[in-house]
């Protein structure tokens, strides 16, 4: 498939009630394994990619290196690739769009794009995030690329007390509406774990909803019934693999 065809296929895989499952990867090797396991598409996780290369999360990994990793994944696997692009490595809309273009040039057909202030506090005002999403969409449209912009809100992730998530729904709905109008393709709500609230967001959002698996989220079958369109695993796969590696190494060295 061409890159445009991959982008169109990636969008088609987002089906409400029949969610796309993304077991997040971090390099070409993990991409190859997950592809061979039967995945329909690939997605990186920013925390995992950074950790695998010795960096912390929060755009600490250089954009140039992230682009190379995207290229290596793209040439290793024929599947559509979405790159977790955090806050776009910039603040101003035009600069964000230019950075996204670099990732597209290296094979990505989708991005995660978050509204949190990377390196700061809170989330960007809706008007600012809308301008940033719109700039990305306009850039992609000029290139005739149906880039999948998975617009992430960090409202729920930044509120650690899940008992308070109910009061964040109205703001989440405003952001979903505004992001859709600006040209986003999906709505990502990491940190949201309550089944009733997940269902409420899926019913209300004009965009396909992405939920990240956490210890207290419903299982994947249940999330499909709630109306979820995309399920991702974030840093969990990387942590599992590194945990196994550490355990085996410790067992080996304890014998000597």
From TrEMBL:
Source species taxonomy: Bacteria, Pseudomonadati, Pseudomonadota, Alphaproteobacteria, Hyphomicrobiales
Keywords per UniProt: Lyase
Pfam families: PEP_mutase (PF13714)
Source domain of life: Bacteria
Protein name per Swiss-Prot or TrEMBL: 2-methylisocitrate lyase-like PEP mutase family enzyme
InterPro entries (alphabetical): ICL/PEPM, Pyrv/PenolPyrv_kinase-like_dom, Pyrv_kinase-like_dom_sf
GO MF: lyase activity
The keyword Lyase appears for this protein: yes
